[in-house]
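Appendix B. One record, verbatim.
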Amino acid sequence: MSKHVIVHTGVPAGTALPDERSVLEGLSDVEFILRGRCATPDAVLEAVRDADAALCSSEPFTREVFVGAPRLRVVVRYGIGVDTIDLDAATDCGVMVAYFPDFCIEEVANHALAHLLCCAKRIVRLDRHLRTTGWADARSLLHDMGQVHHETLGLVGFGNIGRAMAARGRLLGMRVLAHDPFVPADCFEQAGVACVDLDTLARESDYVSLHVPATPQTQGLIAAHFLNLMKPTAYLINTSRGAVVNEPDLIAALQQGRIAGAGLDVFATEPLPPDSALLTMDQVVLTPHTASYADATFVSMRQRVARSALAVVRGGRPEFVANAAVLDRLRS
């Protein structure tokens, strides 16, 4: 009996992957292969040409990949985002794209809140100044500081993470606004959140927190127009995707003092280049795309990724399918 081939395209060959292996290794009907980190469509195609299932992180799964890999039945993407996968091409070729929209909701909301509080209370700046230039210099930063409660939190995107962030804002006594044209009005009402247009959100928010996926519609959504509408005392928090923000426009707004600062976990280019102007700005809190991380959450995610691939090669379906239209035209 030939084995089902499950290929990982997102880690170097020889990576331990104990959580995935705990699900996939030792099975008589499965061969689990690491093809190395595949950075180009050609490399991805070479890796999955004879695979039944692929596990991926941010590798480019293009139409050429799906056409050139006739056995491929599912691509399982770690986490929420599927922006590096051509969903239309996958659907046309009868390939399911599995993802996990319920992944890391609480972790990302907590991280966004941590950025908000670090900006609001200048935690990182106070710590840095206290350590390097002393008590008096650190206390000189105590001006133009908001109180958080009774201030306004604006959420761009009101999906699962946006709603979790809204709940946190309300617990802090904040007024919460949100903008999301894809969410029914009653969802805002049930959450006690005011639904507003994007310009109103920019003008009225003391903290703007971004919670939208990277799509053609959200590419550069936060740019000069939006930033110019923000209060000079306001902060921008981004734990979603770097592409959502026009980074040169944000840097200009920060350099010119048109907004008070930012808390950023994601960037236009990752890793963040060492010559990025953001690294020189005291009013910006930076983390290296870690908002989703918690040990237990990632162990569970890795096992779920492996189980989803296993389910499909054995004739079942994954928990969540990003391209639901494919279910009427699956490859046999």
